[in-house]
């Protein structure tokens, strides 16, 4: 009668060891995946910060473009373009050119 009890005890130890190994393996896998997800989460946070900075920069640029659009519709802008691009001057202006004999 000692033999069956011995086998049960041996089977119980084997089952406990097998379950312990399975639980340890699951714990290792969960830990590794957790670390991987943590790195991915941090990477996403960094990317979100960059995108927020980009959005704020684009909003500032958009405001500047709106202001420039308003400015281009003014008479002052038309005069500046005429002076710079076309070389036009007002009737009462005198233009001095430097000597090119140097």
Description:
The protein is mainly alpha-helical. The protein has one domain (2-86). 81% of the residues lie in helices and 0% in strands. The chain has two helices and no strands. The protein has helices spanning 2-72, 75-86. The N and C termini lie far apart (124 Å).
| Fraction in helix | over 70%
Kindly give the count of domains.
Answer: 1
Task: Give the strand tally.
Answer: 0
State the end-to-end distance: 124 Å
Briefly note the structural class of the backbone: mainly alpha
| Fraction in beta strands | under 5%
| Gyration radius, in Å | 40 Å
Strand count, sense and barrel status of the largest sheet are:
none
Q: H/E series, N to C?
A: HH
Q: Average pLDDT across residues? A: 88
Count every helix, treating DSSP H or I runs of 4 or more residues as helices. Answer: 2
Low-confidence stretches: none
Instruction: Using the alpha-carbon principal axes, give the shape.
Output: rod-shaped
